[in-house]
């Protein structure tokens, strides 16, 4: 059985939104004008500058929802990690906003690209595990920078968090120590990528494996080339690897089922250069 690639229903969409074009951060964020006297009876209008927020700290926890997670900025207050939370800061770094003596805007493409490169690397170092383990999990990196106004006031940091996708546009609570979590079997099991039904069927939803499920993503099919191979080659590339993965998941049973999701051209452009093998998981 081979199944066409599905929209990743929040799991990869989240990473795509964080790493792609961000909305204009100045929209809806202007501050009210204040009137001041110039000493000669005339009045001038000035906008008060935002105070630079405190620099975030690593290993702080937050209660974010999905909308918060895909926003470019976040001014939420950290909470004790012993309480229920959906986001944990895994790294804080400095923005490089000066190039050839010119100051770049915090929402410029070059600054955004810097954070989009750094945070996935910091995320990988924090949660551990192999590249395959991270691809087969529902843990995702997200990142935030100051607003334009906060940057003008001197804030020049980025904050990298880890979240777990519970399902379509839903975040799961994070529990336990996430440092190296995907290097441990119990961590890979809890935060793995599972499905509520056979992939490609109407009842299928991608969910975290700690939730009720019937199928599990068990292996990846990597592609090495830079150019999209086309649907036929992308589809056929998973036949044998996913058949073998299905057999391994069946633990020696002669009668077994398996599924394969190959990357579409759009997902390829978004950076997904691998397919997913699925098997029943009772």
UniProtKB/TrEMBL annotation:
InterPro entries on file: Septum_form
Residue ranges crossing the lipid bilayer per the database entry: none
Record key words, sorted: Signal
Domain of life assignment: Bacteria
Domain Septum formation-related, first and last residues per copy: 108-276
Residue span of region Disordered: 21-58
Record's signal peptide: 1-20
Record-linked Pfam families: Septum_form
PROSITE patterns: PROKAR_LIPOPROTEIN
Regions of compositional bias (Low complexity) in chain numbering: 26-54
Coiled coil: none
Protein name: Septum formation-related domain-containing protein
